[in-house]
Amino acid sequence: MKPQLSLLLLFLMGLPTAFSQEDARASQNGASSYITFSPLSALDAYAPRWRVGYVQPISSHWQVGVDLGYGNKGMALVSGNIGDAYRLCEIRPEVRYVLNPRARTIKYLSAELFYIDQANVFSNGDYEAENGDDFTYDRANYQRQKYGMHLKFGLFVDLGKRAGFNFYGGIGFRWRQSDYFDVENREGADIFREWYPSMYDREGHAFGPNPTLGAAFYYRL
């Protein structure tokens, strides 16, 4: 297991213990757990996956949760940019602070960690190596790891007593490592790239800001 994924799992497992004294209070306040489904992630052109989550209140103001995502070639609704083979796994533990639990529209602030591990197989493509050289190839394996954190603001829009949508947005940072390996018939080339390249075009590591914006359907248990 990757060290970064292990740290995320330990963080998630430690949260309920840290707030265990608040469980009875959450029950008395009528707070309920819920499951989530994020449909927009399945439409990502370069990293499609199905994401589901679970959120558990631990007091009237505090909640902890986790989103898990998985995608492969057979499950992808959009598969034009993911190559001959594809797999993605992700985990997103989150801590939320509800601003006013009695408000008609629930709003919250949250801190989210995330880790993504992705693998593809491409044919007849090209890429830019970390040193800036361009190459073409007949077939190559590609791997991307991405992890970081977000600070988010979100709100719940109810469709009924149990279901609705959670809209959220925020900003954070990410560290990404992309690698090509087992490259067949690699040859140097002079390649013109558009001003906005795809995430598959460049090999190497990068650190920078990472905005987030999305929506999830939720159902209270």
Strand order of the largest sheet: 1-2-3-4-5-6-7-9
Give, in order, the helices and strands: HHEEEEEEEEE
CATH class: Mainly Beta
By helix and strand content, what is the structural category?
mainly beta
Low-confidence stretches: 18-30
Report how far the terminal alpha carbons are from each other.
32 Å
Mean pLDDT: 87
Give the % helix: under 10%
Alpha carbon gyration radius: 20 Å
Description:
The protein has an eight-stranded antiparallel β-barrel. About 6% of the residues have low confidence. The chain has two helices and nine strands; from the N terminus they run H-H-E-E-E-E-E-E-E-E-E. It is elongated. 10% of the residues lie in helices and 57% in strands. It has one domain: Porin. The longest helix is centred in the first third of the chain and has 16 residues. It is mainly β and 221 residues long.
Topology:
Layout: H1 3-18, H2 23-28, E1 34-38, E2 50-57, E3 62-72, E4 85-98, E5 107-128, E6 134-158, E7 163-184, E8 187-189, E9 204-220
